[in-house]
Amino acid sequence: MSTELAEDRESLLYAGLGRRLGAYLLDFALSTSILIVVGVIVRILGVAGLWHPTGPGGQRDPVGIWRALGGAARFSIIFGYLLCLGPIYFVLFESSPWQATFGKRLLQIHVTRDDRSRIGILRSLSRWLAKFISIWFGLSLISIITITATKTEKALHDYVASTVVLRGRPDSSSLLGSWRAVLGLGIPFVWTLLAFLWT
After folding, report:
1. What span, in angstroms and rounded, lies between the C-alpha atoms of 135 and 141?
2. Which of 115, 120, 96, 114 shows the shortest CA–CA distance to 169?
3. What's the DSSP call for residue 50?
4. Across-strand partners of 165?
5. Helices in 137-177 by DSSP H: which ranges?
6. Long-range Cβ contacts of 65-73 (<8 Å, 24+ apart)
7. Contact 184, 88 (CB under 8 A)
């Protein structure tokens, strides 16, 4: 009987699909909102006459402008878009004393190694890459199945990075560190804005 109670207590530690999905959607909205802010700034600059993207012959058609861009300019815009999907944000926040992004923090969950210790930047990066690849190749359904069907409620990217998502907050009462927020959200913003202004 005591073994069953211990297993029940252990299962309460893991973050379920609902919390994880909710946290991901909050974080996705936050990180991609950078694109909206950049779009508003670029639009204001255009209305004020301070920025005029033009294609061949002075055309303002977005498709024509895109086709007229050089390889470096296209790469910088695509890379800015990828940065807005959150690699810096997720990596820096999940390896922080919080062990969580803003979304995870709000929903009271955090990421640890399998042994419950804090993850480092490289493990956090491998976790994000595995998540990105699984989403890109349509493997999210498998992650949903593994989260709901396994005792430790791990997604595919958790298996790759040897991590687990737990309920609650880590024992550490340390602060996030404002530099993480500045870099995690600031770098994608600056890169994306400059990439658009370059066109």
Report:
1. 9
2. 96
3. S
4. 111
5. 140-149, 156-161
6. 65/199, 69/199, 73/195, 73/198, 73/199
7. yes
What does the alpha-carbon distance between residue 37 and residue 189 come to, in Å, rounded to a whole number? 8
H or E element that contains 135: helix 121-136
Distance from first CA to last CA of the chain, Å, rounded? 68
Non-local CB neighbours of 108 within 8 Å, separated by 6+ positions: 19, 167, 168, 169
Distance of CA 162 to the CA centre of its chain: 18
Using the CB atoms, write b or e for 109-130: b if 16+ within 10 Å: bbbbeeeeebbeeebbbbbbeb
Q: In the prediction, which pLDDT does 58 show?
A: 54
Give the whole-angstrom CA distance, residue 175 versus residue 97: 7
- Which amino acid is it at 72? A
Q: Check: pTM over 0.70? Answer yes or no.
A: yes
- Positions of the chain with pLDDT under 70: 1-12, 53-65, 172-173, 199
Q: Which residue has the tokens 């069953």?
A: 4
CA distances from 100 to 3, 16, 116, 133 (A): 31, 15, 14, 21
Task: Tell which phi-psi region holds residue 99, choosing left (phi > 0), alpha (psi between -120 and 50) or beta.
Answer: left
Output b/e per residue, 164-182; b: 16+ Cβ within 10 A.
bbbeeebeeeeebeeebee
Please give the DSSP secondary-structure letter assigned to residue 57: G
Q: Position of tokens 């309920």?
A: 167
Query: How many angstroms separate the CA atoms of 137 and 6, rounded?
Result: 38
